[in-house]
Amino acid sequence: MPEPLVIDPQTVENLRQLNPGDHDEFLREIVGIYFEDTPRRIAELEESLAAGDQAKFTRAAHSVKGSSANVGAMAVRAVAEQIEHKSKQALPEAAAMIPALKAEFARVQAEFAKLLPPR
Q: Roughly what angle, to the nearest 10 degrees, separates helices 98-115 and 25-51?
């Protein structure tokens, strides 16, 4: 199976088309929200793991999966999906994937920084 794209260009284009001509303002806003929320969800994964709260851990992974798909962060979405599925059977195996999730999130941030450079 091929590696998922870091950022899906079609999803980004679809977001741009929701507000054409706004010079990527809407896209910047959506991506900004994603960049604020995802570290909170990753912290929630770590906190729920420490507390042994499998249901909260699974919900946090599900949230990362969905929000990542919404902005086209397909590699993050793929790792979050694996974490979500594994968390239902073996929380330690799912938890072992948190570093991979963080690494993919950093790649997404770098790619969006190229796509949407600061003004």
A: 170
Dihedral angle at the C-alpha atoms of 116, 33, 111, 45, nearest 10 degrees?
170
According to CATH, the superfamily of the domain at 9-115 is HPT domain (1.20.120.160)
How many other β-carbons are positioned within 10 Å of the β-carbon of residue 79? Answer: 25
pTM above 0.90, yes or no: yes
Where do the domains of the chain lie? 9-115
CB 49 within 8 A of CB 60: no
Q: From CA 55, how far away is CA 71, in angstroms rounded?
A: 25
Q: Which residues of the chain have pLDDT under 70?
A: 1-2
